[in-house]
Design a protein that fits this description.
mainly alpha; 4 helices; single chain
């Protein structure tokens, strides 16, 4: 597989595009490593469906407990 050229973004829109590409590559790498669905869900939703703070909170919960069930349940109580 040929490597894509990395272009340094100059505008906010370009930075967002690069961030999406990073998330997609990270997701693909984790998927190849058979990462748990909870972790794939955090990474897959990070850019479009959740802000950085929520992603960080979810990652910390996952690293602490190995799951997001308690973290998500707390949000809806």
């Amino acid at each position: 597989m040929a490597e894509a050229e990395i272009i340094v973004p100059e505008t906010g829109r370009d930075k967002h595009s690069v961030r999406i590409a990073v998330v997609q590559e990270l997701y693909a790498a984790l998927e190849r490593l058979n990462a748990p669905d909870d972790l794939l869900g955090i990474v897959g939703n990070w850019v479009d469906a959740m802000d950085d703070e929520t992603a960080l909170q979810d990652l910390r919960a996952f690293n602490r407990d190995g799951t997001l069930i308690e973290e998500l349940a707390g949000r809806f109580e």
